[in-house]
Design brief:
With about 425 residues, this protein is of the alpha/beta class. It contains eleven helices and 15 strands. It has helices at about 155-165, 175-190, 205-215, 225-240, 260-270, 290-295, 320-330, 345-355, 375-385, 390-395, 395-410; strands at about 10-15, 35, 70, 105-110, 145-150, 150-155, 195-200, 220-225, 250, 275-280, 300-310, 355-365, 370-375, 415-420, 425-430. The strands form four sheets. Strands 4-9-8-7-10-11-15-12 form an eight-stranded mixed β-sheet, with helices on both faces. A three-stranded antiparallel β-sheet has the order 1-13-14, with no helix packed on it. Strands 2-3 form a two-stranded parallel sheet. The radius of gyration is 20 Å and the shape is globular. Residues about 1-10 and about 15-145 have low confidence and may be disordered. This is Methyltransferase domain-containing protein. It holds the Pfam family Methyltransf_31.
């Protein structure tokens, strides 16, 4: 799961209002704010839908989510499958024997879910921020293509790898990641025996939920670029017991470049194409989403479905101010927040271009609303600067701080506060 979103633990959280625009949408639900909590996540409230060009029935998950706090540990208490998946050894090394173009060195991790989180790498933000393991100046820079082990990564993906390695230790502290994963389960409705590909799986929050749905005869493959996120997933899987979740396979790979992955071709030869492909808040980490979506569509069987989300025009966070406003202030193009993210039909256009038929598009509720005071700008600067290896290597820190203060002040409201919101567009497409 990826995003550039953040909601600080220091900022003042308030319950957010449903901002669904459409008539005919499902009932609106109050969103919860995300911060620390010690018990397992309650069921999430469902988002309201935009039904332009789509079905109007309400697909919201169960109601009743209020302001909650983050959760550590496995996202699901439901018993996992107990049988081995057919024809696949989930813990097997994913580099293919003999086959495969140049990506044969992609490796499978013994377990461990995923990413997803809209949040810049600040330690206080929603999508959660870690306080340890910050990328050093030896971390991947965005200036050139980077080799991560045997994988040739684009600068943007290498940057995402560094960020998610950094936030991995506290990723599951953020309630938002669980809530949106629960919503994705409700929207995608994985069926018994289905084959599911979870792109940008992170710590496996969605992966484990999907594994419970597909049962022991199904298969869920979580793919992520971050070793530390996958390690978190591996620990969850181990903690569940030796026989549980044997229908899960975790693989370290670049989701933007899976088309020639030998391990994936081997699995599809054994098990066939996928019934469902999901990507929970992963698109903003990719250099060319339109190309990735076309490649993913080819992995679906006829009747298979692809479900993705992307930040809406209402989405905002300190991380986005950094990427979308500070970068232009330095004479650089905005980072990550694609210019194609203009309305609810943006994802639809990419899906149609990939040959998919639109089943539904919707606008989620506002998952998080957090207010930051002007004085918090310097703390946010330190967090964002520490994680942004590219700007560290290209600009003097004092100059950056001065530019940031100006940009931060421009984004404050009349009360001298910055309001961070997390809201997405979601599109579901079918391969005919």
């Amino acid at each position: 799961m990826w995003s550039g979103r953040g909601a600080s633990k220091v900022g003042r959280d308030v319950p957010s209002k449903d901002e669904s625009p459409s008539k005919g949408a499902g009932p609106s639900e109050a969103a919860g704010s995300s911060r620390d909590a010690k018990d397992s996540p309650p069921k999430a409230a469902g988002p309201s839908e935009n039904t332009k060009g789509a079905q109007s029935k309400d697909d919201s998950p169960s109601t009743g989510a209020g302001p909650t706090k983050g959760v550590k540990g496995s996202p699901s208490k439901a018993a996992g499958p107990s049988k081995d998946t057919k024809g696949v050894q989930p813990e097997d090394d994913s580099s293919s024997k003999g086959a495969g173009p140049s990506k044969a060195a992609r490796t499978s991790e013994a377990a461990g879910p995923s990413t997803d989180a809209r949040g810049s790498p600040s330690k206080a933000a929603s999508p959660s921020k870690a306080t340890t393991g910050a990328p050093s100046k030896d971390s991947p820079s965005q200036g050139s293509q980077t080799k991560s082990d045997e994988l040739q990564l684009s600068p943007q993906v290498a940057w995402a790898e560094a960020i998610f390695d950094y936030i991995a230790p506290t990723y599951d502290d953020c309630r938002y990641h669980f809530t949106i994963a629960e919503d994705f389960i409700a929207w995608s409705a994985p069926q018994k025996g289905a084959k599911v590909l979870d792109l940008g799986c992170g710590t496996g929050i969605f992966t484990f939920l999907a594994a419970d749905k597909v049962g022991p005869d199904g298969l869920v493959i979580g793919v992520d670029i971050s070793r530390r996120m996958l390690q978190q997933a591996k620990e969850k899987k181990s903690a569940s017991g030796g026989q549980r979740f044997k229908n899960i396979m975790f693989v370290r790979d670049d989701i933007s470049n899976l088309h020639d992955a030998a391990w994936l071709q081997r699995i599809m030869t054994q098990r066939g194409a996928f019934d469902l492909i999901t990507g929970v808040t992963c698109l903003t980490a990719l250099p060319a989403p339109h190309v990735a979506i076309k490649n993913w569509a080819r992995l679906l069987k006829p009747g298979g479905r692809l479900i993705l989300d992307n930040p809406s025009e209402e989405d905002s966070s300190p991380g986005y101010v950094w990427e979308a406003d500070l970068y232009p202030a330095l004479g650089l193009p905005p980072k990550h927040k694609g210019t194609w993210t203009t309305d609810i039909h943006c994802l639809e256009r990419l899906f149609v271009s990939a040959g998919l038929e639109i089943e539904k598009s919707l606008r989620t509720r506002n998952y998080v609303e957090t207010f930051y005071e002007e004085k918090e700008g310097d703390r946010i600067f330190e967090e964002e600067y520490r994680a942004d290896v590219d700007l560290q290597t290209r600009y003097d820190k004092k100059l950056l701080r001065q530019r940031w203060r100006k940009v931060w002040r421009r984004n404050l409201d009349k009360n001298g506060e910055f309001c961070a919101r997390v809201q997405s567009f979601v599109t579901i497409g079918i391969k005919r």
